[in-house]
Amino acid sequence: MIVADKLEKKFGNIQALRDVSFEIKDGELYGFIGPDGAGKTTLFRIITSLMIQDSGKATVFGFDNVKDFRKIRNITGYMPGRFSLYQDLSVEENLGFFASVFGTTIEENYEIIKDVYIQIEPFKKRLAGQLSGGMKQKLALCCSLIHYPKLLVLDEPTTGVDAVSRKEFWDLLKGLIAKGITVLVSTPYMDEANLCDKVSLIQNGTILKTDHPGAIAKGFGKKLFDISSDNIYQLIQDLKANRNVDSVFPFGQSVHYTDKTEDVSEQKLKKFLNGKNHQDVRVKEIEPGIEDVFMKLMQMKEE
Are residues 98 and 136 in the same domain? Predict the structure, then answer.
């Protein structure tokens, strides 16, 4: 189990982490969901013993992240957000190097990296710097796993990777969980939250909410409407001017809207917008997602 208790970290006048606490069970796929600058990388560096917190405590399988940093590094695989392998070494050479650092070999732990390695094996003689984004991520994952860690920490592993590679990557993570590895992952993509066993929504160094993805979405607590018209800018302005408005957030080519009244309906909203001379008005009640909850929590915090 990984436990964080009231972690705080400050860089000059910037408070990177504020009273961060959570628990991760052994064998769990746990995600931290939040935008750039939310504090995810700082938190992961503290968990992996690469950075010391200003206050609070963190333990990884019973080991203190400050006192027992060597033990933590032996049982942890860390994949930073930026590709940090040796770009002038081949795929095979990178793997061999990281295996030697941990006193093991590719052959000894081949079973744990097999599902990932077979996808990059055709390029094993290619320099790491010449790989595609998706292949670089898979090589970095292999190097993080080569010593068969108990904990795998991945900092935004799918950022900048195409949709197909993202799906393949998450499928690989599910396979690692089945092999008994605990996975801690961060991502700015809200849709990836549903792929985790448990998630924490984080912003400005503060955890807004922690729960199972389905439970977070169900806790939204209001009717949610997806609304569009011929003039998206004017649509937003008119909805914000509605006396019963609770929230208005742009979502692609439409707007997600909540109302303060319980009897709000698709028909009433459509009538209101038609009265404002909107054309091609479309109003549909929808189920809230993780992103809707995140935006709602941010609004409540600002208020």
Answer: yes
Which tops the pLDDT comparison, 158 or 125? 125
What number is the average pLDDT over the span 95-107? 92
CA 273/CA 260 separation, integer angstroms: 17
Phi, psi of 31 (to 5 degrees): -115, 140
Q: Which of the 8 DSSP states describes residue 227? A: E
Q: Which of 179, 210, 241 is the last residue of a domain?
A: 210
**Looking at the structure, do residues 167 and 134 belong to the same domain, yes or no?**
yes
Q: Which residues pair with 209 in a beta bridge?
A: 201
Nearest alpha carbon to residue 254 among 222, 276, 225, 277: 225
Please check the confidence at residue 300 and state whether its pLDDT lies above 70.
yes
Q: Centre a 10 Å sphere on the Cβ of residue 233 and count the other Cβ atoms it contains.
A: 8
Give pLDDT tens digits for 239-283: 999 999 999 999 989 999 999 999 999 999 999 999 999 999 999
- Structural domain of 260: 222-287
Q: Is residue 132 part of a domain?
A: yes
What distance, in Å, lies between the first and last C-alpha atoms of the chain? 35
Distance (Å, whole) CA 29 – CA 61: 15
Number of domains present in the structure of the chain: 2
Residue 36 in tokens: 């750039």
Strands 198-203 and 29-33: parallel
Cα(164)–Cα(187) distance, integer angstroms? 16
Q: For residue 292, is it within any domain?
A: no
Model confidence pLDDT, tens digit, residues 204-230: 999 999 999 989 988 888 999 999 999
- Of 203, 231, 224, which is closest to residue 292 (Cα–Cα)? 224
- 216/209 Cα distance (integer angstroms): 8
Instruction: Output the domain CATH number for residue 266.
Output: 3.30.70.100
Q: Is residue 159 a part of any domain in this protein?
A: yes
What's the predicted TM-score (pTM) here?
0.87
